[in-house]
Automatic annotation (TrEMBL):
GO cellular component term, pick one: cytosol
Keywords: Purine biosynthesis, Transferase
Organism annotation: Lujinxingia vulgaris
Listed name of the protein: phosphoribosylglycinamide formyltransferase 1
Pfam families per record: Formyl_trans_N
Keyword Transferase: yes
C-alpha cells in the first residue's frame, strides 16, 4: 500500500465520522490521527482565560439547561438531515485510527511526518499549533460552520441569524493558518434554514452541505484544480457560545 494522499487530524465529534466516510468513499480508506478529548475542566479554564469566569459560567448554564432541551426537540430533524443527505455517523474503523494525546503533541507530528500526506483535513480538534501546521509540506483544511471572515469561532450560523444577517448563514471550507478561522477560503455556501431548525439542528444542516464540499475541495487540491478565493478585506468577529440571556433575546426575535 502506498503513502496515503490524505490524512485526517481529528478529535471526537459528530462531524468526524461523516468526513471520514465522505473522504473514504472518494479516495479509499483515510488514516485518522485522533486526539484525546480535552477534559471539561481544562476546556473551561482555557475559555475562562479569554472570556473570564463569569461569562463562562453563563455559557455553561446555557449548555446544561437550554441546549439539551433544544437537542431533544430537534432530534427528528437531525435524523431527517442525516438520512436525507446520507451522512454516515457509524464509527471509524479502528485500523484507521492513530491515537495521540493531542494534535499538538510530538506523537501527532511524528505521525504526520511518517504519513507524508498531500492534504490534511482537520475535524473537531483544539486549535492547531504553528509547530503542527509546519511539520509537513501539505495544506491543512477545515470545515467551518459559518461564513468567514464575518462569523469565526463557534455557532457561526446561529450568530448570523441572531445578528439579523440570514444571508450569512452557511458554511466555509478554508485553509488553516495560525489564526482562528482566518485562512484563505476554498469554498463557501449560504444556506437557508427551515422553520423546523433550531440551535441544535443548525450544525447538522451545515454538515449536510459542508461535508461534500470538503470532499470536493480535497479532490481539487490533489488535482491542482481547486482555486483559492481572495478573502474580503475585513477580519469579522470571533464568536463564542451563547448564554441563556443572549439566547432568550434572540428567541424573542424568532431566532430559535
Amino acid at each position: 500500500m502506498g503513502t496515503p494522499r490524505v490524512v485526517m487530524l481529528a478529535g471526537p465529534g459528530d462531524v468526524t465520522p461523516m468526513l471520514y466516510h465522505e473522504l473514504s468513499a472518494r479516495l479509499g480508506p483515510v488514516p485518522v490521527i485522533m486526539e484525546r478529548p480535552m477534559s471539561r475542566a481544562d476546556f473551561l479554564r482555557r475559555r475562562a482565560r479569554r472570556l473570564g469566569w463569569l461569562q463562562v459560567g453563563h455559557q455553561s448554564l446555557f449548555q446544561t439547561t437550554v441546549a439539551p432541551v433544544l437537542r431533544r426537540r430537534g432530534r427528528r430533524r437531525i435524523d431527517e438531515l442525516l438520512r436525507t443527505h446520507e451522512l454516515r455517523g457509524d464509527p471509524i474503523p479502528e485500523a484507521q485510527i492513530i491515537a495521540v494525546p493531542s494534535v499538538n503533541s510530538d506523537e501527532a507530528r511524528d505521525a504526520l511526518r511518517a504519513l507524508e500526506p498531500e492534504v490534511v483535513v482537520i475535524s473537531a480538534t483544539r486549535i492547531v499549533s504553528k509547530a503542527t501546521l509546519r511539520c509537513v509540506e501539505a495544506p491543512f483544511i477545515n470545515l467551518h460552520t459559518g461564513i468567514t471572515p464575518y462569523y469565526r469561532g463557534v455557532h457561526g450560523g446561529y450568530w448570523a441569524l441572531h445578528q439579523g444577517e440570514p444571508e450569512r448563514f452557511g458554511v466555509t471550507v478554508h485553509l488553516v493558518d495560525a489564526g482562528i478561522d482566518t485562512g484563505a477560503i476554498l469554498a463557501q455556501r449560504v444556506i437557508e434554514p427551515s422553520v423546523e431548525d433550531n440551535f441544535a439542528t443548525y450544525p447538522y444542516l451545515q454538515f449536510a452541505h459542508g461535508v461534500p464540499m470538503v470532499g470536493a475541495a480535497v479532490e481539487g487540491l490533489l488535482t491542482g484544480e481547486q482555486p483559492r478565493w481572495r478573502e474580503p478585506a475585513v477580519r469579522g468577529g470571533l464568536w463564542s457560545h451563547p448564554t441563556v440571556l443572549s439566547y432568550l433575546r434572540g428567541r424573542r426575535r424568532g431566532v430559535r
